[in-house]
Design a protein that fits this description.
Strand content: 25-35%
Largest sheet: 8 strands, mixed
Number of strands: 12
Order of helices and strands: EEEEEEHEEEHHEEEHHH
Length: 216
């Protein structure tokens, strides 16, 4: 298991959400990149130096510090979409190889390189910016049906990472709440929502959303 690339955003206009800019245009960079806990959502801060969230209401902050997608998923989408998908095209900070990103457990911890430890916090949920980035009508529905969402991670131990760093799973919690299960519950299968509460590392924002939707 290893890190294929570290991808940093290049600001560009965001007509899809009516915002001045977006950081979804992420591209691989050479050399080490500092990783730190960005703190609470609302400032645009994210976990990787040189990157930031522009839709500060929905992105950024400790629970969405870093976004990871598996290269294997990108390859599968290449086949389905009939077009090449470069590392970073899905807006991910980390493109991994050999890691079951969607099968990762909420609260699972990865050591990347010698210093950095990240913790899986939740699944990526698609938005209008993502659909605009792919230039494909109906992309949100197609992506949602596939349930290969990629994972957000929080920073447990800061440091530096770079392409080709090994990834080692150093902790797996004792529950069955995977990234895929989280995504399915939050999208097309709300009957699964109560199962998410078994994950202690579930973001409080998500936990509150589960409570609202299951008690309404």
């Amino acid at each position: 298991m290893k890190l294929l690339s570290v991808n940093i955003g290049h600001p560009r206009p965001n007509p899809w959400k009516g915002l001045p800019s977006t950081g979804i245009d992420k591209r691989p960079v050479d050399g080490p990149v500092a990783v730190t806990d960005p703190g609470p959502k609302g400032t645009g801060a994210v976990g990787l130096a040189g990157d930031r969230a522009h839709d500060v209401k929905h992105h950024g902050g400790s629970d969405q510090a870093v976004l990871a997608h598996a290269r294997e998923d990108l390859d599968e989408w290449e086949s389905e979409l009939g077009r090449p998908l470069a590392n970073g095209l899905f807006g991910e900070n980390l493109t991994t190889l050999g890691v079951d990103v969607n099968g990762a457990l909420i609260g699972e911890r990865w050591r990347i390189g010698p210093d950095v430890v990240l913790e899986v916090s939740c699944a990526r949920l698609p938005c209008a910016t993502f659909e605009g980035r792919l230039e494909r009508d109906g992309w949100i529905k197609q992506f949602t049906r596939a349930a290969r969402p990629g994972a957000y991670l929080r920073v447990i131990e800061p440091g530096e990472i770079r392409a080709a760093d090994p990834i080692v799973i150093v902790h797996r919690p004792a529950h069955d709440v995977t990234v895929e299960l989280f995504f399915r519950a939050m999208t097309l299968e709300p009957q699964l929502l109560p199962r998410l509460l078994a994950a202690d590392a579930l973001p409080e924002e998500s936990r509150e959303r589960v409570r609202r939707r299951t008690t309404a």
